[in-house]
Design goal:
This protein has 365 residues and is mainly α. It has 2 domains: 98 residues, Farnesyl Diphosphate Synthase; 182 residues, Orthogonal Bundle (Farnesyl Diphosphate Synthase). The chain is 65% helix and 0% strand. It is built from 16 helices and no strands. Helix 2 runs parallel beside helix 9. The longest helix has 25 residues. The protein is globular and about 60 Å long. It starts with 36 loop residues before the first helix and ends in a 6-residue tail after the last helix. The N terminus is likely disordered. It binds ligand LST6JFWI, adenosine-5'-triphosphate and manganese (II) ion. Belongs to the phytoene/squalene synthase family. Pathway: Carotenoid biosynthesis; phytoene biosynthesis; all-trans-phytoene from geranylgeranyl diphosphate: step 1/1. InterPro entries: Isoprenoid_synthase_dom_sf (IPR008949), Squ/phyt_synthse (IPR002060), Squalene/phytoene_synthase_CS (IPR019845), Trans_IPPS_bact-type (IPR044843), Trans_IPPS_HH (IPR033904).
């Protein structure tokens, strides 16, 4: 392929990532009552805030387009990204169809890179993945940002990062999250968990904003918008963790703050045995409360995005947020009952998402 120094290896026509599993990889992390003042001051928040500021500053810079200029190849690359996205996340894919075609395909390219990164530690080959393999993946990321993609999916991302104000840090941080996931099976407190959630999901928010675009009429500061995007990633991840407690437990993993479990008087053994006790219900209520707090934070920022980008964000936010309602409906049995939002509810939330997107507010819908 064209573009200075691009290295091409054989590129199989079929997916480079394995076909989706029936149930996409578990990945869990957690939370508890409302964030404590210690947590607010925590190192993790400071570190994350630094990245947010850097990423926000990039938006103001004009970047030269050094991406690949082989348009046929790029079109194919983006098309393939769209196919993967459609296969792994149908509802979300539908949402992206309302975005402008340029933004939509950029989001697809980012989605595919994130999905592949996650598949490294969560997919069928996860047991063979070592920190060294992640180092190789990170070098490959550097090459993507330097215009030297390794395969077609990378080429799409390479073009995207040359076209939008995307910094490399959130991508590196996501790889860091995968490193952490390889090594760590317990989180001492919410600060530790928060950092993990930032790595694997908050980063997605930071990657998405430059592509989705901030509305020209927005009066909010760029930092405010990034903070909302970060909050959505955290909220999604906390929800994902709460949904998958049972599944994670069966893999010997507990993505819940150990100190909060201890204060609630819940032992690891009770989690492994899947005991839905009264103390578990109280503990879960607090966890859900915290996740909702992050959703609330995120909701405040959606209206600041460009109008065409709001709908997919609202759609995915409402879908994910409803998982918390279903956990409640399941009477907090997240050990053996998967909180699943039925098709009817899912479709019912689409007009709501659309209404909110066009009104620019959640006041009337
Ligand atoms: C519109 C929209 C949602 C855009 C984001 C698209 C995108 C690039 C998604 C990548 C997601 C991904 C594959 C991340 C890898 C790590 C991972 C799996 C994280 C978990 C996602 C849920 O996936 P799933 O349920 O399939 O998980 P399982 O593997 O099955 O367990 C996460 C829970 C986190 C995803 C985080 C987001 C989608 C962040 C969204 C934030 C924004 C789009 C910012 C919006 C802006 C404002 C101002 C609110
Ligand atoms: N009905 C659901 N209930 C709970 N979680 C869901 C549900 N549908 C999707 N999710 C979660 O949200 C993520 C992204 O949502 P999306 O709707 O795009 O996924 P999907 O699995 O392709 O759904 P579908 O094929 O039903 O449209 C999924 O990977 C999954 O973890
Ligand atoms: Mn899916």
């Amino acid at each position: 392929m064209a573009a200075g120094g691009v290295v091409w290896v054989t590129f199989p026509k079929q997916n480079l990532i394995p076909p989706p599993r029936k149930r996409l990889g578990p990945k869990l992390r957690t939370g508890v009552p409302l964030i404590s003042s210690t947590a607010v001051r925590a190192y993790s928040e400071e570190k994350v805030h630094e990245v947010v500021l850097k990423q926000a500053a990039l938006v103001k810079q004009q970047r030269p387009n050094e991406g690949c200029k082989d348009w046929d190849l790029l079109n194919e690359a983006y098309e393939r990204c769209g196919e993967v996205c459609a296969e792994y996340a149908k509802t979300f894919y539908l949402g992206t169809l309302l975005m402008t075609s340029e933004r939509r395909r950029a989001i697809w390219a980012i989605y595919v890179w994130c999905r592949r990164t996650d598949e490294l530690v969560d997919g069928p080959n996860a047991s063979h993945i070592t920190p060294r393999a992640l180092d190789t993946w990170e070098k490959r990321l550097d090459n993507i940002f330097q215009g030297r993609p390794y395969d077609l999916f990378d080429a799409a991302l390479s073009h995207t990062v040359s076209n939008y104000a995307l910094g490399i840090q959130p991508f590196k941080d996501m790889i860091e999250g995968m490193r952490l996931d390889l090594l760590k099976t317990r989180y001492n407190n919410f600060d530790e968990l928060y950092l993990y959630c930032y790595y694997v999901a908050g980063t997605v928010g930071l990657m998405s904003v430059p592509v989705m675009g901030i509305a020209s009429e927005s009066k909010a500061s760029i930092e405010t918008v990034y903070s909302a995007a970060l909050a959505l990633g955290i909220a999604n991840q906390l929800t994902n963790i709460l949904r998958d407690v049972g599944e994670d437990g069966r893999r010997g993993r507990i993505y819940l703050p150990q100190d909060e479990l201890a204060s609630a008087g819940i032992s690891e053994d009770e989690i492994f045995r899947g005991q839905v006790s009264d103390k578990w219900k109280i503990f879960m209520k607090n966890q859900i409360k915290r996740a909702r707090m992050y959703f609330d934070e995120a909701e405040k920022g959606v209206a600041e995005l460009k109008e065409a980008s709001r709908w997919p964000v609202w759609a995915s936010l409402l879908l994910y947020r409803q998982i918390l309602d279903v956990i409640e409906e399941n009477d907090y049995n997240n050990f053996t009952k998967r909180a699943y939002v039925g098709k009817a509810k899912k479709f019912a939330s689409l007009p709501l998402a659309y209404g909110r997107a066009i009104m620019g507010t959640s006041k009337f819908f």
